[in-house]
């Protein structure tokens, strides 16, 4: 369950956790390392199905989500996460750069959409802004 920032938890000492959903092992590791370099924690997932399972049992403050995933694409994963966690920041990162794909991403509930290759500072800056808008550096947890 998504817990709001005012849920009584002491969030000051915790670093925000971002679920990284990327099926390419190397890219997943790179994205996790990028987040760590900026003081953010990460929870890796490799499929949309795994992301939904992880979200149901492990706290996260935001999601960095690839679109081209096995089993369930990122658009459907985003839509399902958004149905469960209304205020969860979701950032799509994908090689798909068409206007139609961007529109599908935002229609699915994404807060932001970046095409690969992406600028790391822009991705992290967007995540930090979205987390801050949710009330703290973490913005609340899902799980």
What does this entry look like structurally?
The protein has 143 residues and is α/β, with parallel strands linked by helices. The chain has one domain (17-133): Rossmann fold, CATH 3.40.50. Helix content is 41%, strand content 17%. It has 5 helices and 5 strands; from the N terminus they run βαβαβαβαβα. It has helices spanning 25-37, 48-57, 74-84, 99-108, 120-133; strands spanning 17-21, 41-45, 62-66, 90-94, 112-115. It has a 5-stranded parallel beta sheet, with helices on both faces. α2 runs parallel beside α3 and α3 (74-84) runs parallel beside α4. The chain is globular. Residues 1-13 and 136-143 have low confidence and may be disordered.
- Classified in CATH, the superfamily is Response regulator
**Termini Cα gap:** 5 Å
Radius of gyration: 14 Å
Number of helices: 5
Number of domains: 1
CATH secondary-structure class: Alpha Beta
Order of helices and strands: EHEHEHEHEH
Number of strands: 5
Class of secondary structure makeup: alpha/beta
Query: How big a fraction of the residues is strand?
Result: 15-25%
Task: Please give a handful of descriptors for the protein shown.
single chain; Rossmann fold; 5 strands; globular
Task: Please outline what is shown here.
This protein is an alpha/beta fold and 143 residues long. 41% of the residues lie in helices and 17% in strands.
Outline the fold blueprint.
Layout: E1 17-21, H1 25-37, E2 41-45, H2 48-57, E3 62-66, H3 74-84, E4 90-94, H4 99-108, E5 112-115, H5 120-133
């Amino acid at each position: 369950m998504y817990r709001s920032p005012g849920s009584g938890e002491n969030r000051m000492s915790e670093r925000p956790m971002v679920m990284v959903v990327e099926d390419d092992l190397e890219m997943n590791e790179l994205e996790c390392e990028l987040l760590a370099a900026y003081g953010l924690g990460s929870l890796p997932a490799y499929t949309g199905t795994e992301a939904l399972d992880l979200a149901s049992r492990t706290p996260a403050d935001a999601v960095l989500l690839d679109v081209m995933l096995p089993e369930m694409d990122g658009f459907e994963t985003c839509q399902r996460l958004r149905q469960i966690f209304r205020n969860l920041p979701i950032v799509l990162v994908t090689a798909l750069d068409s206007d139609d794909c961007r529109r599908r991403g935002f229609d699915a509930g994404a807060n932001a959409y970046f095409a690969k290759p992406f600028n790391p500072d822009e991705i992290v800056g967007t995540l930090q802004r979205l987390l801050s808008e949710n009330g703290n550096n973490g913005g609340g947890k899902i799980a």
